[in-house]
TrEMBL record:
Species of provenance: Chiloscyllium punctatum (Brownbanded bambooshark)
A GO cellular component entry from the record: plasma membrane
Subcellular location(s) per record: Cell membrane
Transmembrane segments: 512-530, 598-617, 623-642, 658-679
Family: Belongs to the TMEM8 family.
Positions of the EGF-like domain: 461-500
Keyword Membrane: yes
Disulfide bond residue pairs: 465-475, 490-499
Record's bilayer topology term: Multi-pass membrane protein
UniProtKB keywords: Cell membrane, Disulfide bond, EGF-like domain, Membrane, Transmembrane, Transmembrane helix
Domain of life: Eukaryota
Official protein name in the record: EGF-like domain-containing protein
InterPro entries listed in its UniProt record: EGF, NGX6/PGAP6/MYMK
């Protein structure tokens, strides 16, 4: 009997995020070995135990060959973007802390399998780093495979006798499909049940492998027909195809013979391409390629248009691949970019995608028909882009193209429609083929066309993102377990795979309003600057001016839309804004402590240096603001308590200072902290953060202590002939007299 072995694979658990763009989904990559007959997914999910951990659903997407193209937000794709819906399932996390879900897939396709998991839609709330109240949801996929050792190989045109019984109800086979195969025929014959010959064989024939979301598996019920024969057009080239025969009744012993036939068609006029190779010159370095093997093209010397079976052959159009960057490839048609297309046979162009490298981007195909070269205005140029093998039989009445085990994307051009475009995000790692042919009748036969020809300009590239995600998007390179892929993150209300969905897009006036509010609200720091100068706090006024300046231009540069103005690099503006904000809080509280000048300015400098270092380590850390605030408050409270004990009176001493200055200032600061920490979302950021600016600046006006009325620092009003000396005020600080 057959020998099976089981293998187990697992990956590190990851914390899930609410979904707002593809980068929020956690991507896992597994390798399914050859000859796997059963694939079992074990999906483990868990959540925290805190009160913030509510019931939720985890969505898991599966795809073989490339990352799944998902659309949880139900946004619109681009006009020329074609997407197959991903297979997904939902894991509910209710009262139980942990949940486990399994998914079985029989006869899975071998190679890379991708699993993507995410939480529901992001609510848009902005939370301070280190002060997050979000629950932790953990997800871990595990893969258990059962594969068969020594799978019988089915040779073409050779019969193989098999037997199914109650012990072995399934028989697994495989056959290798060579290049240029245009037809595969599988025939079951001489069937017998319990040694009794029967005309209808009670078995199921499974051809191909199972892949998600689009299945590369075809099921044939042989019990319902007298002749169990199945013919497949254009099976996947240069691959092992799985065949499974399964008994429809486990109590029967069934014997039968299985036989396969392959029809291979050599390319038309392939020998003439030797001249093309000899004449092809690379424009970059004027190097002549004379050996076709360098380009990986096998040329067969056959000048016939029909093979022995009467099936039309095709012509290979050589294509050169140029690697540009990560997930970035250009394809050049040799002696192109114009490609001659005819009605006599299909033209095939090979677009080769490397395994594990090129399926994280987007294939962008552009076709341009030369109208003057079209010899028949009623003719239509058909183009089909497919993976695995080219589509040989194009139908003029069909709205799609593809074969039994592959899916294709159809484009049509004529004298009215001269150009077409196609974008395929996350293409499967495989050989992709572009089939071009002219059809001009309502039937499959092209004989009514005669000899019609045309020139089509072919442009094919692999880009990380479509159009670099447009004006309102940013293309980001992501990584998962060493695998690189790209995705768009949209802004200013734009959505979609390539940021082309303007359903919730912000208008220009809305973007301009947000920029003006966030920038001009910083002008509320002018009153604190004036008050600080009036009370002779010149160092404090300088820091407030620094904060106002960089916060204004940082928010003018930080906007998501096109109403943006950057006077420096974004990172520099952000650093200076964050640094100025924290230093402003630090010096304001120290100023309220009314320390001696020498000690105060030492703390000013030392604290500013430590804050600058902390900002460099973690700019958005919670303790960057909380740490200086707590230290400064401790110093201020200590100083106030010391003065109160020394004077035997509450400090500050007057109730007016408390009622009209300290309490309003503290209240404004607390409201600002509440708005900043709990109310800000991505939708209301432009006005809630503006309120934060106004409240913080207003609190400084109330909290700055009164100046020293006996100090005269306007030195330039005195005569230049006077002398200067430092005198000590026993009550407060050092001051300068003339």
């Amino acid at each position: 009997g057959p020998t099976y072995i089981s293998e187990y694979y697992s990956q590190t658990p990851q914390k899930l995020s609410l979904y707002s763009w593809y980068g929020n989904a956690r991507l896992f990559v597994f390798q399914v070995p050859e000859n796997t007959v059963l694939l079992k997914w074990i999906l483990q999910a868990s959540k925290g135990k805190g009160p913030e951990c509510q019931n939720t659903n985890i969505t898991v997407h599966f795809r073989a060959g490339a990352p799944p193209v998902i659309n949880p937000l139900q946004t619109k794709f681009g006009i020329d973007t074609v997407v197959l819906p991903s297979f997904n399932l939902t894991i509910p996390l209710t009262s139980a802390v942990q949940s486990s879900t399994t998914l079985n897939i029989s006869n899975p396709v071998s190679g890379d399998w991708f699993v993507a998991a995410h939480l529901p839609k992001d609510d848009g709330k902005i939370e301070v780093k280190g002060f997050s109240t979000k629950c932790s949801y953990i997800f871990q996929p595990q893969m258990l495979v059962q594969r068969l050792i020594n799978v019988p190989v089915l040779e073409p045109s050779t019969s193989l006798t098999l037997m199914l019984s109650s012990v072995d109800q399934v028989s697994h086979l495989k056959i290798f499909i060579p290049e240029h195969t245009v037809e595969l025929t599988i025939h079951l014959k001489n069937c017998a049940v319990d040694t009794r010959p029967v005309e209808s064989c009670p078995v199921f024939l499974l051809i191909g492998s199972n892949a998600l979301p689009n299945s590369h598996l075809k099921i044939v019920n042989c019990s319902g027909s007298l002749v169990c024969r199945e013919t497949l057009d254009s099976p996947p080239w240069m691959k092992w195809m799985q065949l499974t025969v399964q008994s429809s009744n486990p109590n029967w012993t069934i014997t039968f013979e299985i036989e396969t036939y392959l029809t291979v068609c050599e390319p038309v006029n392939a020998g003439s391409f030797l001249t093309l190779f000899n004449n092809f010159t690379l424009s970059s370095n004027d190097t002549v390629i004379k050996n076709p093997d360098i380009l990986g093209v096998y040329v067969k010397p056959n000048n016939t248009e029909l093979n022995s079976s009467g099936i039309s052959c095709f012509r290979n159009q050589p294509v050169l691949r140029e690697d540009v960057d990560v997930v970035s490839v250009r394809f050049f048609v040799l002696n192109g970019p114009d490609t001659p297309v005819t009605s006599e046979y299909p033209i095939i162009l090979l677009l080769n995608l490397n395994t594990g490298r090129d399926n994280g981007g987007t294939i962008m195909l552009n076709l341009q028909l030369n109208k003057t070269s079209l010899s028949n205005e009623n003719a239509t140029v058909f183009a089909c882009l497919s993976a695995g093998s080219p589509v040989m039989s194009l139908d003029v009445n069909s709205r799609s193209c593809g074969e039994a085990l592959s899916w294709g994307y159809l484009l049509k051009m004529n004298s009215s429609v001269l150009s077409r475009s196609l974008q395929v995000p996350y293409p499967e790692t495989d050989h992709w083929y572009l089939t071009l042919q002219i059809l001009c009748s309502s039937h499959k036969s092209n004989q009514t066309c005669g000899k019609v020809s045309a020139l089509v300009t072919v442009s094919a590239i692999l880009n990380p993102c479509v159009g670099d995600c447009g004006v309102y998007g940013e293309c980001r390179l992501l990584q998962a377990h060493g695998y690189l892929y790209a995705a768009c993150v949209c802004k200013a209300g734009w959505n979609g795979w390539s940021c082309t969905d303007d359903t919730n897009a912000q208008s220009y006036s809305r973007q301009l309003l947000a920029t003006l509010l966030l920038s001009l609200s910083n002008l509320m720091f002018i009153p604190p600057i004036v008050v600080a100068v009036h009370r002779y706090y010149f160092v404090e006024a300088s820091v407030y001016f620094f904060t106002m300046f960089f916060s204004t231009f940082y928010h003018a540069c930080d906007q998501p839309g096109i109403a943006v103005m950057c006077i420096m690099e974004y990172d520099t503006l952000q650093y200076c804004d964050f640094l100025g904000s924290v230093v402003s809080v630090w010096i304001t509280i120290l100023c309220m402590a009314r320390l001696r000048s020498l000690l105060k300015y030492v703390l000013f400098i030392l604290g500013s240096l430590l804050i600058a270092m902390s900002m460099q380590l973690d700019r958005r850390g919670l303790w960057n603001l909380l740490g200086p605030c707590l230290v400064a408050l401790c110093i201020m409270i200590t100083a106030w308590v010391f003065r109160g004990v020394k004077r035997r009176h509450c400090y500050p001493p007057t109730w007016k200072r408390w009622v009209f200055f300290l309490l309003p200032g503290i209240g404004a600061a607390l409201i600002a902290i509440a708005v900043y920490g709990f109310l800000e979302t991505k939708e209301n950021y432009y006005y809630t953060h503006s309120i934060w600016h106004i409240l913080v600046a207003g609190s400084v006006v109330f909290l700055l202590p009164p100046g020293k009325k006996h100090i005269n620092l306007w030195i330039w009003k005195q005569k230049f002939t006077c002398g200067y000396q430092l005198c000590s005020d026993v009550k407060e600080d050092l001051y300068i007299v003339c």
